[in-house]
Design a protein that fits this description.
Elements lengths: L1 H11 L5 H24 L25 H4 L25 H4 L3 H11 L40 H5 L19 H14 L3 H10 L5 E9 L4 E2 L2 E8 L2 E9 L7 E3 H6 L7 E6 L5 E6 L1 E8 L5 E9 L11 H4 L20 E5 L11 E4 L6 E5 L2 E7 L6 H4 L1 E9 L3 H18 L12 H13 L1 E3 L2 E4 L14 H17 L1 H16 L3 E3 L14 E5 L8 E5 L4 E2 L2 E2 L14 H8 L18 E2 L8 E4 L9 E5 L9 H11 L1
Parallel strand pairs: 4-10, 5-9, 16-22
Antiparallel strand pairs: 1-14, 2-13, 3-4, 3-8, 5-10, 6-7, 8-9, 11-12, 12-13, 15-16, 17-24, 18-19, 20-21, 23-24
């Protein structure tokens, strides 16, 4: 059985997956059912010759099962079953006269005789039938008896009384080709329901919620991109895959399973990929060096590619050798045979521009495909649908049926399960977090600027631009100083504590007064205010410098990268408390003020102060240390702490 499965994969050129396995099992089950019915249920014995024993009921159904197996009508019979159609000693499914009727007449007789539309039994209804099998004729997925199937118009013959559903398989202008006709028939078979069963379900209130929608569907024209088969190799290992020549990619990518198949390994790293609408996707990849050879052997080189799961998603690969005959200008072009897998396994970007070179371009009329001879062979781009013929032939109407059964409950279950795993998941502290592009820039700038000067760490500010241009906000800072002074003068204790804090900043060297000659070099003034916490045992009055204050619609924090979050989650901290019997806890006093700011960034961190003497002009002070209030300060402090 396993060998049959792998042979089927090879013949159908499919990739092994759960969905593909399910498709093979369904097909194999249909074949087994057809074979079993042929042997057991459709024998060629004369209609009147039946082997019958009184001690044992050997009547078989259309599918070859004993009736007693399912528990139907277990009372002993006085003789073999009589055909409801011709009254001979055989089942209806064996009746040659019944088989001579067309599908509509068989349906009418089955309704009149109250036969099961699934097995043609006369002692039970369709809902109780345990002999249900899929029809399987021409891909029919309905569970009616195969004698009721008629492929020319399934919906009309399966449901002759359902006039509310438009017949399937009819085209707008009578130009529907055979392949689309079969697809339409298969779609109709999916929604076909026995009229007796539907009526019974409707009366009993058990009919599932159904939404019917008739819609005119046109086959979407498929535009093929430039693809070509190539040989990837590593040592003695070789495999033929399909490559995509992408002029819009600056890098080359290869599917990770191909790299694993060729036993190629590399060092994992994270890369950023620009996608639509300015979005940036970050994912983990592995750069690998792989041998690339053209099918004709003229190109043989090494390329470096990044691994990914699906380099082009579900993009289709077009075999132009099958479509070239539709256009005269493509006749005679020897398009190479594609790889065995119908997907793209390597995307060749412009980092190998020589492989995109065009030796020759062949084009037809406007809108027709364009062929190109590249170093890797012939490729072609364009629409695979011929403009004057195929669009008319691929136009058809379908009746779509959507069954809705407790979709809201299923969504609720999915959300509950997702929340459960998110809460119960224990993060791996060794795992490197995925950083956004802004966070990577901030980390890079701070890391490269970190120095140790006069016994202290010094870092630069992670600006969004190299030299930010800010307006002169002196007037705004002076007005905010006046507002702060009014509040401090109302409470003498808070005012004294505020003045004393700034004096300590000056005495400890955190800030220094700027001479009047240098005041014109100021780049930004930070407003400041008091935050009072009477419940604190240490610092009850804290000074906060407002880097979020806007002037002319811009703030200092707007031009600074905030940086990534480096501190550990509380959950991780609590887990570490349970690992050992003794835990050590420490606190860094004035952590921000222990780190120096780079000298070139200090003019952006100045403020006005005059010790509550409102009758004199304010002096200008400049910070030397990281400011409490800037959005990058927590990141800078945590970064230095991790380095120390």
């Amino acid at each position: 059985m396993l060998s049959q499965y792998h042979r089927w994969l090879f013949e159908k050129e499919k990739i092994e997956s759960v969905e593909v396995l399910r498709e093979w099992i369904n097909k194999e089950a249909e074949f087994q059912t057809i074979a079993f019915e042929t042997v057991e249920g459709l024998s060629d014995k004369p209609a009147g010759v039946v082997e019958y024993k009184k001690t044992r009921n050997t009547n078989k159904t259309f599918f070859g099962h004993n009736e007693s197996t399912f528990g139907y009508n277990n009372k002993p019979r006085g003789g073999p079953r009589l055909c409801k159609f011709c009254n001979n000693h055989h089942g209806v499914w064996k009746c040659e006269e019944f088989k001579k009727m067309d599908a509509v007449e068989r349906w009418d007789f089955a309704k009149m005789a109250k036969l099961c539309y699934r097995c043609l039994g006369d002692d039970h209804q369709g809902k109780m039938c345990r002999r249900t099998r899929i029809c399987g004729i021409n891909g029919c997925r309905d569970n009616h008896n195969r004698l009721f199937h008629k492929s020319s118009n399934p919906s009309r013959h399966m449901s002759p009384n359902r006039e509310d559903v438009a017949p399937c398989g009819t085209s707008n202008k009578g130009m529907l080709n055979t392949s689309v006709q079969q697809k339409a028939n298969a779609a109709c078979n999916d929604i076909a329901t026995s009229p007796m069963e539907e009526e019974r379900l409707r009366k009993s209130g058990q009919l599932p919620n159904t939404t019917m929608m008739s819609k005119s569907t046109h086959q979407a024209s498929f535009t093929a991109l430039r693809t070509v088969p190539v040989i990837l190799k590593n040592g003695s290992r070789r495999t033929t895959v399909n490559a995509r020549l992408d002029d819009a990619s600056t890098k080359t990518y290869v599917n990770a399973d191909i790299a694993a198949e060729l036993c190629i390994k590399g060092e994992p790293q994270r890369v950023d990929v620009n996608v639509l609408n300015g979005q940036i996707e970050t994912f983990e990849t592995m750069p690998v060096e792989i041998g690339l050879e053209s099918v004709n052997g003229r190109v043989d080189m090494k390329v470096t590619a990044f691994t990914t799961d699906k380099v082009t998603g579900n993009m289709q690969v077009v075999d132009w050798s099958k479509y070239a005959g539709r256009w005269s200008h493509l006749d005679g072009i020897s398009f190479p045979k594609l790889g065995s897998k119908p997907i793209i396994d390597i995307l060749i970007g412009m980092d190998y521009a020589d492989l995109h070179y065009s030796y020759r371009d062949i084009r037809g009329r406007p809108g027709e495909p364009i062929a190109r001879l590249t170093p890797l062979g012939w490729t072609c781009i364009g629409n695979t649908v011929c403009s004057n013929v195929d669009k008319m032939q691929h136009q058809t109407n379908f009746a779509h049926t959507y069954f809705v059964k407790h979709s809201s409950e299923l969504a609720e279950i999915n959300n509950t399960l997702r929340q459960f795993w998110e809460i119960e998941d224990i993060p791996d502290i060794s795992e490197i977090p995925v950083l956004s592009r802004d966070d990577q820039i901030a980390l890079h700038k701070v890391q490269n600027s970190l120095t140790f000067v006069d016994g202290r760490y010094q870092v630069a500010t992670p600006w969004r631009e190299d030299v930010p241009e800010l307006p002169n906000n002196y007037d705004m800072a002076k007005q905010r100083l006046w507002n702060t002074e009014k509040k401090l003068l109302k409470n003498e204790d808070i005012g004294k504590a505020y003045v004393e804090n700034i004096r300590q900043y000056v005495n400890k060297g955190y800030v220094h007064k700027i001479p009047e000659a240098e005041e014109n070099q100021s780049k930004w003034y930070l407003p400041h205010f008091a935050v009072v916490r009477p419940d604190r045992t240490t610092t009850k009055t804290r000074i906060v410098f407002d880097a979020s204050a806007k002037y002319e619609d811009v703030a200092l924090n707007d031009v600074i990268h905030q940086g990534p979050k480096l501190q550990r989650d509380l959950f991780d901290v609590l887990l570490r408390f349970r690992k050992n019997p003794v835990a050590l806890v420490s606190d860094i006093s004035e952590m921000y003020l222990k780190i120096q700011i780079a000298p070139e960034d200090r003019p952006y961190f100045r403020f006005l102060w005059r010790e509550l003497q409102t009758d004199k002009p304010p002096d200008v002070y400049e910070f030397k240390r990281v400011v409490f209030g800037a959005n990058c300060s927590p990141f800078q402090a945590q970064f230095v702490t991790c380095k120390s």
